[in-house]
């Protein structure tokens, strides 16, 4: 895991010293991605400057240092990530006629020789891993860029006048201070307010983009950037799977997935540095850890953080699972102050506005984990691929009920729910909780009922899903002079059919929310303290397998991730796992009324909002006042604005 950056002077007016100086500054801005070493390379004839920051994981010797040249000298690369099947590819390449031999044993060297032997796109199709790759072709004078299939590793790029910039993080591009245009894209800002992240391929800045997962592009010698083209597509995978749903007996499908997961996990445990795993005690992380232990020769190192607030604490459950599996478990209970201390660092760690508040505990657990290991496996992807979110289970059945109710009646019902504050609903549920059926026993019921009211007016299944996943329902009204940007998967022709609403929601979550929220959150939280994370569920073989599952192996008896549970219960007792889904959060709602109130009031002051000119002050202040009085729980709305405001302050955005 590393950080990469590059600068291309298309006018070819820079000498080697200037090219390497600019590339080094870009790399310095994201140095935490790779504190174990740095290197630059330039080609002044073609205006190329490359920077690499190394977090040494495989081949810790000098033979693994980047920028790295292919044996022929044709290709030079800076590369971020891991190609897990590099040993298989290495063996295959060794059989090639006239193969020149190896310098070391890094996956970077294998990647370069694969490109030399098979060509760029064909090599990409053979890689199993997570990566962002930049290769300069010294023969054809092309810059080649690619990103892994599911988007685990980030890659940003921008054309700035006569210069082309790219980097693992936006802060690398902002490191080119003198010329990088920091103008906020208001259409992207509106999309950010809806989702709490900026959907790719857009970023918060005008004329700056993220390369989409599973695609590659090429910068030609004349400065033309080709349209990114897919070498693998989740959409194609989902469409093809519709006619290839597994028909084998359930037991055979479960066993096949278990074997596949064991193969992938064993491969992803390859490391020349200490390795462990995050463990929340839920289905996904518990299954990953249980299978890791099957592959390991010693107890797996596992890590959990806990909170004294029981509504947010998973540490007890994780500890019980760890004890049963037999891991070497470390837990750390953190105070509210520990979490609050992270907030000033957020704009530096997430260098474009990002307001999923679980970023705070994610960074805390990463920081604690990094004290013991350099690589940590996680259960990310389990919910999206195997139907683990409430919207996949209860949400779909709710929509099928709602669509049969006349719209006027739905709107009346929504008003009735909204007229009672979340706190009052919580009291009602607490009072009658023991008498309620399990389906109505939930955490934070007031918040969930108000969310239900928000979606009851939807006129279609796609609008219903959009509202379910929205923070602000009307972001164009909140951001001045904005037309909300809609991502590529917001177009019907870029989606699978809605015949099966659960499968459609799963696709939308995996293509959007998982990439731009979950994976962005984990990458920045972990790389901000130089920790590599790996997500076995996102191996493309697992992804392709998941798309072919019959629905009863996804959802069974009103419960998602059925097939994962069937595997997990071979290793962990069912009663140890079965409990309401908690999520990984912090009490932002009460913090805003308490220790964060002064900070928030300063950032949301009406004269400041008016002066800065991004938001319609009335909408923001109404949301703030409703939250302060308890009329509504607007924590996520307020947090999204605060994260933008603090980001502007940190990066001096005017």
At a glance:
With 654 residues, this protein is α+β, with helices and mostly antiparallel strands.
Low-confidence stretches: none
Q: In order across it, which strands form the biggest sheet? A: 2-3-1-9-8-10
Distance between the termini: 33 Å
Task: Kindly give the count of domains.
Answer: 3
Q: Count of DSSP E strands?
A: 17
CATH fold description of the largest domain? Glutamine Phosphoribosylpyrophosphate, subunit 1, domain 1
> Can you tell me the CATH class of the largest domain?
Alpha Beta
Q: pLDDT average, as an integer? A: 93
Structural class: alpha+beta
CATH homologous superfamily heading of the largest domain: Aminohydrolase, N-terminal nucleophile (Ntn) domain
Question: Topology of this protein?
Answer:
Layout: E1 2-9, H1 16-28, E2 37-43, E3 48-54, E4 68-69, E5 75-83, H2 86-94, H3 107-118, H4 120-126, E6 129-137, E7 142-147, E8 156-160, E9 163-167, H5 170-174, H6 186-195, E10 208-210, E11 215-219, E12 229-230, H7 234-241, H8 250-268, E13 275-278, H9 283-295, E14 301-307, H10 315-325, E15 328-334, H11 336-340, H12 346-349, H13 359-370, E16 375-377, H14 382-386, H15 390-402, H16 407-418, H17 422-432, H18 445-455, H19 461-468, H20 475-478, H21 501-527, E17 532-534, H22 540-547, H23 562-568, H24 574-577, H25 588-593, H26 597-603, H27 606-612, H28 617-629, H29 635-651
Parallel strand pairs: 13-14, 13-16, 14-15, 16-17
Antiparallel strand pairs: 1-3, 1-9, 2-3, 4-5, 5-6, 6-7, 7-11, 8-9, 8-10, 11-12
